[in-house]
Design goal:
Layout: H1 3-25, H2 29-50, H3 55-59, H4 64-72, H5 74-82, H6 93-104, E1 124-126, E2 141-144, E3 153-156, E4 158-160, H7 170-183, E5 187-188, H8 196-199, E6 205-209, H9 225-232, E7 237-243, E8 255-256, H10 263-269, E9 277-278, H11 289-302, E10 308-313, H12 317-330, E11 336-340, H13 351-356, H14 361-374, E12 382-385, H15 392-400, E13 405-408, H16 410-416, H17 438-441, H18 446-470, E14 484-487, E15 493-495, H19 519-527, H20 544-549
Parallel strand pairs: 4-13, 5-6, 6-7, 7-10, 10-11, 11-12, 12-13
Antiparallel strand pairs: 1-14, 2-3, 8-9, 14-15
Helix pairs in contact: 1-2, 6-16, 6-18, 7-18, 11-12, 12-14, 12-19, 15-18
Amino acid sequence: MTIMQMVYWLIASVGNLLALYLFNTTGNGLSILLLFLSLSYSCIGFYDLKYSPHTLNRLYPVVAYIRYFLESYRIEIQQYFVANDTEERPFNREQRSLVYQRAKNVRDTIAFGTQRDLMEDNYLSLWHSLSPKHIADDVKRITFGGPDCTQPYNASYLNISAMSFGSLSTNAIEAMNLGAKQAGCYHNTGEGGASPYHLKHGGDIVWQIGSGLFGCRDESGNFNPDTFETMAKRSQIKMIEIKLSQGAKPGHGGVLPKAKITREIAAIRHIPMDRDCISPAVNPECTTPIALLRFVVRLRTLSGGKPVGFKLCIGNPAEFLGVCKAMLETGITPDFITVDGAEGGTGAAPVEFSNRLGMVCLEGVYFVHNALVGVGLRDKIRIIASGKTASSFDILTKIALGADTVNAARTMMLALGCIQSRHCNTNMCPTGIATQDPARSKAINVEQKSQRIKNFHHNTLESFYELVGSMGLDDPAKLMPQMVKRRSPYGLLMSVGSLIEPLAPNALIDDSADRLVDEVWSAWWSTSRSDQFYADDLYVLTPAEFKHQA
């Protein structure tokens, strides 16, 4: 018998008798309270001892609930009282504070010097120039639209990444879209479709078509070209994005918990309300690289010539090279490719998928950029980097490693007021952002919060342009991978990507002696296929520094 079991029997017997005696003797308020507490303790403890399914309750009746209570607030306790400014995940206090400050348009500087260990392994940094430059307005936008696009789109360097209505509340979606309109950036709908709340305020929209085909599917779940065409030709829809995979859960379909499915969401998505909405892992219209590209053409035609691209997290590199082979064979190229990173966020995902699958964003962007260079298609296709982006330095590193523009999702939520409580999958979001509870979501003031989106966007880009200028560059397009430095385990600096062989233009399709291709690229290229995504992952990766030392 544990100590708390003995305490229980002591209170249930002697304690109740004593409380009853005091009640009969005095009858005052204190005796009533003691009798109520002792009887309540006895009843709860009896249930714990005899009927509770939890071992802790059986061994430690009543007091076990204290543990459950404290455990339910573990995230908040750690966030507020335990973690320092630089150690939390996914966004630490320093990053969150920066977003809040820029969103509120208040001072975003720090005092007394950095809290970071500048000699830490893999620490990223930049070299400045003694001749800083000014970034002119005419290089602050990026044009999307390849040779087959008749309605090109001029985009900002920073945009709102994919977040669906369903995952986010109506007011959160409205605030983001109005903020996008005020900021001059686009707003990605996420795979839940272009809802009325995405369209209400007139902000530029990138319509994402996920594997569930929500917003353009028939009652059987198949692609409906008429529904798609009607929506895609709306002037507010600027680009179309086909979602193949997501960085936070590659190889797994999107998940919308049953608790967050309202009648309105069910009607928009054409889904039932009695179970979780789990999208297929594979887009039914894109089962092979060639099928993907034919779907790109179909959507581009139906939309009236708007830019169409696809989004994916890079896994086996040979499989993306299979898409490149399909581009060469068919002559079809997407207008853009969105590269999501394994560090990206989501409302709900299996732990193993979020923790263990996929390349991080910088690796994926660098690989895709080089692959497109190697097949001679980089000048026709824009690259959008998605993933974890909190500061102007995050934008800069993604652009330097090969991206043209950057998408941010969770930091836009932080700008709205998200406190990183990590309750997105429970419908109990304390800030009303990631919930379908109308009592919670109505707390979001659309006008005020949209201004915070605009402020965060403006202030972060201003910092980005100043950071680029501090390197002696007058155009972000001049950023190169070697300009980002990484602290090696030996304490010395090395350029990011310097140990990964970059490809010369057309290197993968030109056999001439002056265009030698590294062994790993040759292995991936030889196993890639245009008629199927899957490629054997047989090449044994060797630490690049060992190879270079040899």
